[in-house]
Amino acid sequence: MEFKEEDIADVWNEPPRYAIITGANTGIGYEMSRILAAKGWHVILACRNRQRGISAVNDIISDVGSHARIEFMELDLSSLDSVCNFVRRYSMKLRPLNLLINNAGIMLAPHALTVDGIEQTFQVNFVGPYLLTSLLLPKIRGSASADFPSRVVNVGSVAHRWAPKQGVILNMTTINDPSNYQRWGWYGHSKLALMLYTRKLCRDLMYENVYVNCVHPGVIRSDLFRHEGSPCLTFESLRDSRVAGEYFPPFFGAAGKLINFFAIPFYRSKASGALTPLFAATSPLVTQV
Ligand SMILES: NC(=O)c1ccc[n+]([C@@H]2O[C@H](COP(=O)([O-])OP(=O)(O)OC[C@H]3O[C@@H](n4cnc5c(N)ncnc54)[C@H](OP(=O)(O)O)[C@@H]3O)[C@@H](O)[C@H]2O)c1
Predict the structure, then answer these.
(1) Catalytic one among 90, 181, 197, 267?
(2) Measured between alpha carbons, how far is 183 from 190 in angstroms, rounded to an integer?
(3) What is the tens place of the pLDDT at every residue in 140-156?
(4) Transmembrane stretches, by residue range (predicted)?
(5) Which of 41, 146, 190, 276 has the fewest CB atoms within 10 Å around its CB?
């Protein structure tokens, strides 16, 4: 089954429906915001950089029209204070929250600790979204009805398979230790944690009108590969990870760029990557995983 933009219901004539999308200034998040705004949703672009966030809002308004209900709110998932401030500011607006899409993410970043002393990929991809969702949950629950269930969509990745073999590591000393750091392995680890959190939320909310799902958007040409200095995956990066190194021997490094060059056209567009999470976010066919 192919899900298309036209399949997303228009909500212009309903009471305002509110969606928060994290990491919405570029990539898949930007496309999801643009599409939902065109369908009449009130979209909050939750981005870490004010200038990039406002510029994305303006671009969407020029695309959709000045009637678009769209705004920027600052949120940096690498700071737990920023997450708490965001929730405080959203709560002060006394609005419902019908949809939360935890989309923001980083991949293959160099090892670094956040201001909270947590390895940055783990915090941005899991700890930040976990705190954000937990704090917004009363609002999400309170906005849900049988006619219009609330939804949480976590943008995961098949890369959860690259997580360390023992599964989610619960020891922060091990997670933070630079000598353990594997760029692919730690990205997979953060996505595995997000997926398991999704399952827990599903169980907790089983008897409520709140649907929680986790989706892989496909392999998309986006800025996600920015830490590689390349728009796409390189075999060098795979080889760099000790986990992936078990599968990709060193000689792949030399051939990687060439293979990659031919693979780029097969990567999906950002707009197409947006449709999978939006299917989980809006389709009446989707309830709970
Ligand atoms: N692209 C793929 O092939 C692919 C495959 C599987 C899963 N995914 C997942 O899809 C999601 C979106 O990725 P994308 O491909 O659209 O990547 P992208 O183009 O790099 O967009 C990532 C977004 O996350 C934001 N972000 C990064 N760090 C943040 C922080 N500390 N606080 C708040 N926002 C932050 C970025 O903001 P700035 O622009 O300010 O950095 C950007 O808006 C990610 O969760 C990714 O893991 C992507």
Answers:
(1) 181
(2) 11
(3) 999 999 999 999 999 99
(4) none
(5) 146
pLDDT at 256 > cutoff 90: no
Distance from the alpha carbon of residue 268 to the mean position of ligand 1, in angstroms = 15
| Cβ atoms of residues 193 and 166 within 8 Å | no
User: In CATH, what number is assigned to the domain containing residue 195?
Assistant: 3.40.50.720
Predicted confidence (pLDDT) per residue in 158-191, tens digit: 999 999 888 899 899 999 999 999 888 999 999 9
Total number of domains in the chain = 2
Torsion sign across C-alpha atoms 20, 24, 25, 31: negative
The DSSP letter of residue 124 is I
pTM > 0.90: yes
**Distance of CA 86 from the midpoint of ligand 1 (Å):** 18
Mean pLDDT of the region 120-144 = 98
- For the question of residue 181 being annotated catalytic, the response is yes
Please indicate, yes or no, whether residues 155 and 204 belong to a single structural domain of this protein: yes
Same-domain check for residues 135 and 262: no
